[in-house]
Amino acid sequence: MSTVVETDVLIVGSGPAGASAALALSTYGVPNIVVTRYASLADTPRAHITNQRTMEVLRDLGVEQEVVAQATPQHLMGNTTFCTSLAGEELGRVRSWGNDPLAQAEHELASPTRMCDMPQHLMEPVLVNAAVARGTRLRFETEYLSHAQDADGVTATVRDRLRGDTYEIRAKYLIGADGGRSRVATDAGLPMGGQMGVAGSINIVFEADLAKYTAHRPATLYWVLAPGATVGGIGAGLVRCVRPWTEWLIVWGYDVTAGAPDLTTAYAESVVRGLVGDDDIPVTIKSSSAWTVNEMYAESYANGRVFCAGDAVHRHPPSNGLGSNTSIQDAYNLAWKLGLVLDGTAHPRLLDSYTAERAPIGRQVVTRANRSIRETAPVFEALDGLSPQTPEQLWANIAARKDTTEAAGKQRAELREAIAFKAYEFNAHGVDLNQRYTSGAIVPDGTPDPGFTRDPELHHQPSSRPGARLPHAWITSGSRTLSTLDTVGRGRFTLLTGIGGEAWVRAAEAQEVEIATVVIGPGQEYEDPYGDWARLSEISDAGALLVRPDGFVAFRHASAAPDAGERLADALRTILGHA
Ligand code: FDA
C-alpha cells in the first residue's frame, strides 16, 4: 500500500443514493470521489417510480428534463390492473400515481414537476454523467473494504478489483451509499431495527410485445393472481412495464424457508408464461435474480464523520415505489450540509440534523412499504384466493363472483373495496410529499403543529411552518412563469418576502452566508398574479420565510420586524449549529 488519495468526501456506491450525493456535492463545488464495486452502473431496471419530490430535487440539480426525456410519462403509468394473467380475466383497476382526476389536480397543485417511471438502469447514468461532468472522480471496480476515523477525517481502504491491490483514500467525510448489505453501515456500527429476509422474491427481466394486453389499459404495474402467487414475494405476481410495451420485469415470490429456486431460463420462461397467459407471444429472457423482502431501518444514520444513505439505512420492498426516491432525498438532505461544514460556514453540529430529519422518514417508508404488501391480501381474500387449493378451485372461486346470488354480490363489493384500498400503495401522495422535519436546523416559530386535515398518507397538505417543504405556487417574473420552488435551492439559502419586507431583504444581504432574496408582489421582481402565493405563504406581505438549500423552511416570521437583522442572524446561528 503506497498511495493515499485525498478528497473532501468519499462516497461508496454509485446507486441512486451515491450518484445523487456525488451530483449534489459536485454541483455545490465540493470535491468528491465515488468508488463502486462493479464495472458498470445498474444493469437491471430495479427501482422505477419517481415521485414529485424526487423530480423537484432533480430539477434543482439540473437534470429533470433529461429524466423526463427518457422516462415513461405519468399518463402511461396509471391503470394498475389486477387480473388472473395479462391475457386472462381482469378483476379490477386502480387509477394510480396521480392519474385519478382528483389526484391529478392535487399533483398539479402540489408541485411544478410530474411523477414519472424512470427505471434505475436509465436513472443512474443521468445522475453519474452529470456528477462526473461537474467534477466527481469515479472509480469503477473499486471495493470499499474498511475505514478508520480520527478527529480530522476518515481513511478508507479500498481494493482495485482489476489489479487486485489495495490503497487508501483519505477524506474529511465518508458517505456509505453501498446498498442493502452495507458494509459501511456495519463498520460504522449503525444500530438497525427490524428484520432482513422476511420473504423471498425473484425478478425476471424479459422482452415481449405485450401491447395487445396493455396498451388499452396503460399501466406501470399489472398484478396477477395465479396459483402460487401469494407465496412469499410482494403479495402477488407482478408484471411491471420497463419500456411500453416491449420490455418487462416480473416479480414472483418463493418460500424463503425453502431457498431460491434454480433460476434457469426454462424456469424463468415458465413463470413468464404463467403470468402473461399467452404461449404464442415470443419471449426473450434477459436476466433473473433472487432477492429478499426486508423490513429494516437504522435508528442513526451517522457515526462521527461517517454518514449512510439509501438502502444502507432503510431496507424495504418496492411497494409504493419509495426505494430510489428516499435514497435520492437522503443524499440531497446531506449534501448541502456537508458543503457548508466543509467551507467553514456551518459548525459540524449541523450534520446532527441529518439523522434527526431523515431517520424518521426512513422508518415511515419501511413501515409503509411492508404494510402495503399485507394490504394486498384482502384483494385475494375477497376471491377466496389465499387458502391452499388446486388451480381449478381458484378459478372456480374467481368465477363465483359473476353469480346472481347474494354471496356473489357481497364478494364483488368486497373485491371493489379491497382494490380501492390499494390507493395507500398506488396513490399515497402524502407519503411522497408531507415530510416535515424537526431538528436543530429548523427554528420553531412558536405556532402549534397544524396537523393534517385529511389522511396524511393519501393527501399532500402544504405548509410554510418551519420544517415543511416550501409550498409550490406559480408566480411570474416578467414574461416568465415559475414555481416558488424554482427561486430556492442551488446550494444556497433563500429569503422570501413581499411588499413591506425591505428590512428582511437588508438583513439577508448583511449576513455572511449567501442568501438569495425573493420579493413577491405588484411591481416587484416576482409577482403573484393568481394570488396562489398569498393563499399558501401563511405570512403577511411584510413577513419572511428563510428557506434552506434543500427547499425546506428553516425560519418563519409572520410580519414585519424592526429587528429583522437580529432575528435573522439568530436564526442562522441556530440553523448553522453556531448557537
Ligand atoms: P443501491 O443498492 O442501488 O446501490 C449500492 C451501490 O453500492 C452499488 O453501486 C454497489 O455496486 C455499491 N457497493 C456495494 N457494496 C460496495 C462496496 N463494498 N464497495 C464499493 N461499492 C459497493 N426497488 C424498486 O422500487 N423496484 C424494484 O423492482 C426493485 N428491484 C430491485 C432489484 C434488485 C436486484 C435490487 C438490488 C434492488 C431492487 N430495488 C427495487 C431496490 C432499489 O434498487 C433500491 O431501493 C435503490 O437502488 C437504493 O439505492 P441505493 O443507492 O441506496 O443502493
From TrEMBL:
Respond yes or no to whether keyword RNA-binding is given for this record.
no
Asked if the record carries the keyword Oxidoreductase, the reply is yes
> What does the UniProt keyword field contain?
FAD, Flavoprotein, Monooxygenase, Oxidoreductase
Coiled coil regions, renumbered to chain: none
Q: Please state the Enzyme Commission number of this protein.
A: 1.14.13.20
The cross-references to InterPro entries, in alphabetical order and at most eight, read: FAD-bd (IPR002938), FAD/NAD-bd_sf (IPR036188), RIFMO-like (IPR050641)
**Name this protein carries in UniProt:** 2,4-dichlorophenol 6-monooxygenase
From what organism does this protein derive? Streptomyces caelestis
